[in-house]
Design brief:
The structure is a homodimer of 324-residue chains. With 324 residues, chain A is of the alpha/beta class. Chain A folds into 2 domains: 201 residues, 3-Layer(aba) Sandwich (Rossmann fold), CATH 3.40.50.720; 92 residues, UDP-galactose 4-epimerase, domain 1. Chain A has 11 helices and 12 strands. In chain A, helix 1 links the parallel strand 1 and strand 2. In chain A, helix 1 packs across helix 7, helix 4 runs parallel beside helix 5 and helix 6 packs parallel to helix 8. The two termini of chain A are 38 Å apart. Chains A and B meet through helix 5 of A and helix 5 of B. Chains A, B: This is SDR family oxidoreductase. Chains A, B: InterPro entries: DenD, Epimerase_deHydtase, NAD(P)-bd_dom_sf. Chains A, B: Pfam families: Epimerase (PF01370). Chains A, B: It comes from Neotabrizicola shimadae.
Chain lengths: 324, 324
């Protein structure tokens, strides 16, 4: 079996590549692995044939290079992120919509080829106003170009799957927490930062109220979503192959309690409250919780308590893991 | 004011062109009119400058030709119809999605230009299972490539409007009844045929049960939707600029009763019942009724009784109108 991971240089993409290389997919061995991103992504230990490709997804030859190994499973995680897609209209549509269209076209033009296509979508397909817990039949209403591009791609995945051109599904990821690495400028960055930085003995800024609630899953859960989506029986999905992934609805206060239980009050004291009305307003527009009943019934699993999310970070990602 | 009607050769497009030529838009005079379709559409009596263009919407120069008069109002009714979009994947996407994208791109690339863009969408954006009356917040779920293309264009209209690149809205039309002219092969054709043919003294075939219910508006109502959409204050729409138009939910039995009341039992006797399981199954997948509360609150109006629909046909479209 040949597997393509598009966006294999990103945080989730790297973890997914390592997991596929180490354990195969659904108990099946993987013989070939194509890892692609804007620059050639890191290659995990893997006994089979592996190809690391750095490419511009909008280039005319991108589809043929990506599909060269005729991968049976395609994980598509490559995207211009939300902020950039909003700042640069053309680039967002070129990468997040048109490049995916061309890839899908190349697939359907290949005779006898109908790969499993797992598309990384986002809860950004939803927009205010929200109920407190968003049910699976809630109508998507993107309020950003990024969310629009994700939803349009979901619709293409549905239509091409219905027509038997691909065997696709779209998985809408929660906010991933705790993101390893350095703090970034994303409006959502503090959700990880107020845990990650104090765990390393560093100060962190909390720009919103403790009562702010949001929807989370760990990087490990996210990798699990992709692996499960790769082998799921799609006949159970019907016409709507977009699934809101399960996650954990937690408040900032619950995050802080988890931190306290693991690292004590000294760690909590490193969180500095600096209310930022701009960030507060952005976050106020985000969903707080999803039912995700369909995905759970189909076997997708996420954490149920915030201290699990914290322990996963300590086990897998914290920079001092080797020193613990 | 300059007005562009794209799809001006179609049944609704021709009526819309005549209405705009005769009465202007929202009490404002129209000085220039660009009428475009695959072949140059008929030109109604009009005192101002009128241009009738026959063009392939997918041609590279189509946007510049269409936007030459820098129309303040654009009515976009051009489309590959449902059956053809399903039969020819490439052509459906090329016309119904890509050509519209290029037109929208040309608009946003024109400095200082932000026209009203009224897009003809369809209730084909919805798919089973349906509640008996579909509320405005019901999640679209297209089950055809045509419906997918219409919904994707709605999302583009929303996103470009949100970004101030156009001032757009999408109006989801009911099934138009009574369609004038010859019978066609569309699965929905009988809804018009069982009235139109007997009114002309001709036999008609009814392939489904009398209890089948569907969602209708007259051609006159459809033209009214477009004219109202052209001047509506879009600030009231919020982020979702797609509106399900009002209509009339009626059963086949109610259609037949309206026919009887206008043309008597002799006309009704011209309807031959020939159950067709294929058509019955297709029609079974269609919505029966919509609440359309948002559109009604915004001033869109349709018929409330089927005999109105019948009278409108007799007044405006029946071939023997001049002889009556």
């Amino acid at each position: 079996m040949h597997v393509l991971i598009l966006g294999a240089g990103g945080m989730i993409g790297r973890k997914l590549a390592s997991a596929v290389a180490a354990q195969g997919i659904g108990g099946q061995p993987v013989s070939g692995l194509t890892l692609a991103d804007v620059t050639a992504p890191p290659v995990p230990a893997f006994p089979g044939a592996v190809q690391a490709i750095g490419l511009d997804l909008t280039a005319a030859d991108a589809p043929s290079r990506l599909l060269d190994g005729r991968p049976e499973i395609i994980f598509h995680l490559a995207a211009i992120v939300s902020g950039e897609a909003e700042a640069d209209f053309d680039r967002g549509y070129a990468v997040n919509l048109d490049a995916t269209r061309r890839l899908l076209d190349a697939i359907r033009m290949t005779p006898g080829y109908r790969p499993r296509f797992v598309f990384a979508s986002s809860i950004a397909v939803f927009g205010r106003p929200f109920p407190e817990v968003i049910p699976d039949d809630f109508a998507p209403q993107p309020l950003t170009s990024y969310g629009t591009q994700k939803l349009i791609t979901e619709l293409l995945v549905n239509d091409l799957s219905r027509r038997g051109m691909i065997d696709g599904l779209s998985i809408r990821l929660p906010t991933i927490c705790i993101r390893p690495g350095a703090p970034n400028k994303a409006a959502s960055g503090f959700f990880s930062g107020i845990l990650r930085e104090p765990l390393a003995g560093l100060p962190a800024v909390l720009p919103v109220a403790d009562t702010v609630k949001h929807w989370f899953a760990s990087p490990r859960a996210a990798v699990g979503f992709f692996l499960h989506a790769a082998t799921l029986d799609t006949a159970a999905l019907g016409a709507n192959r977009a699934l809101t992934m399960p996650g954990l609805a937690a408040t900032v206060a619950e995050e802080i309690e988890a931190l306290r239980s693991v690292a004590g009050q000294a760690a909590v004291d490193l969180i500095r409250r600096e209310p930022d009305p701009v960030i507060a307003r952005i976050v106020d527009g985000w969903p707080q919780a999803f039912a995700a009943d369909r995905a759970r019934a189909l076997g997708f699993q996420a954490e149920t308590r915030f201290d699990e999310i914290l322990q996963i970070y300590l086990t897998e990602d914290a920079p001092s893991v080797s020193a613990r």
